[in-house]
C-alpha cells in the first residue's frame, strides 16, 4: 500500500443496495480512493445477524462485488474483499469483546430497532454487531471511515474500544475518524419518511434499489408519500418533500434552495417525476455496468481472492500485535 492514510468501509450484502446506501456511502468511494489507501469490504458476516436465505445471500455477495466495481472502485488501487475471507476479523472481535460491556451494546439504536423488527430472532450476533464492526475498522489501522449518519454511534464505540485497548495494553490501534457526507447522509423511506430508507424493508415501494430500471424508479417516486399542502419547500413539518428535495439535490448537485426555486409554483406530480428522472440518469449506467460485470463470476471471484490476500497481510500484522500485547504466546511454525 502507498504511504497514505488508510480508509475502511464495509457494506452488508443483506439485499440489493438502495440509493440510501449509495448516497450515504458508495458515491464517496471513487474520489476518496485517490487520496487514501481504500480498503472496501463486503460485511457478509454481519449479514448473518438477520436470518438470510443462503442462496439469496450468495447472489447478493456477487451483486455487491459487481456494484462496488461499477461505482468506480479500482480493484488494483484499492483493496476489495469479503469479510469472511479474512478470519482476523472474528479473531479480533473476540479480543475486543473482552473489553466491551453488555450495557454499551444494549443501548445501541440499531440493536433496539432490529430487535423490534426481528422479535423472533434476537440473537447474540445482533447485539455484538458493533464489536465486529470495531474489529473490521481497527484491524486496518484505519484513519477514516465514510459512513451514513446511522452508523455514527457504532463508530463512536470503535473509537472507545481503540482508546480503551491502547490505555490497557499500550499504543496498538489508530483511533479512526468518521466521514459523514455533507448532504444526504440520511435518506428516508419513500413510504414512511420519518424512518430511514433500508434495503431490507419489506415494502418494496419504500426504497429505490440500485437494481431498479428507470420506469420502476419513476413509478416508485410517483407513489412516494408527500405532505398535505402542495408547496415544494424543505421543512421539518414536511418530511416527505424534504426527503425528495434532498435526493434531488444530491443526484443533480444542486443546492436545496436552487431546487426549491426551480419547482416554485409547480405541483407535486411534476416534481416527483423530475426527481425520478434525475435519479434514473445516474443509476441506470451503474446498473448496466454492474450487470455486465455480474456475467463474469470468475472475474469477481478473482477480485475477491486478490483482495483477501492483500487485506490479510495488513490484518494479521495488527492481530499478531494484539495477541502479543495481551500476553498470548506466538505459535511456532516449521
Ligand atoms: N438511508 C440511508 N441514508 C444514508 N446512508 C445510509 N446507509 C444505510 N442506509 C442509509 C449507509 O450505507 C452504508 C452501508 O450500510 P450497511 O448495508 O452496512 O448497513 P445499514 O446501515 O444497516 O444499511 P441498511 O440499508 O439499513 O441495511 P439493512 O436493511 O440490512 O439493515 C453505511 O455507511 C450506512 O451508514
Report what the structure shows.
With 334 residues, the chain is mainly alpha-helical. It has two domains: 6-184 and 297-326, Rossmann fold (3-Layer(aba) Sandwich); 204-291, Tyrosyl-Transfer RNA Synthetase (Orthogonal Bundle), CATH 1.10.240.10. 54% of the residues lie in helices and 7% in strands. The protein has helices at 19-35, 44-47, 54-70, 88-97, 102-106, 109-117, 124-138, 152-169, 214-222, 239-252, 256-262, 268-294, 297-326, and strands at 6-11, 37-42, 79-82, 144-146, 177-179. Strands 1-2-3 form a three-stranded parallel sheet. It is globular, with a radius of gyration of 21 Å.
Topology:
Elements: E1 6-11, H1 19-35, E2 37-42, H2 44-47, H3 54-70, E3 79-82, H4 88-97, H5 102-106, H6 109-117, H7 124-138, E4 144-146, H8 152-169, E5 177-179, H9 214-222, H10 239-252, H11 256-262, H12 268-294, H13 297-326
Parallel strand pairs: 1-2, 2-3, 4-5
The structure holds adenosine-5'-tetraphosphate.
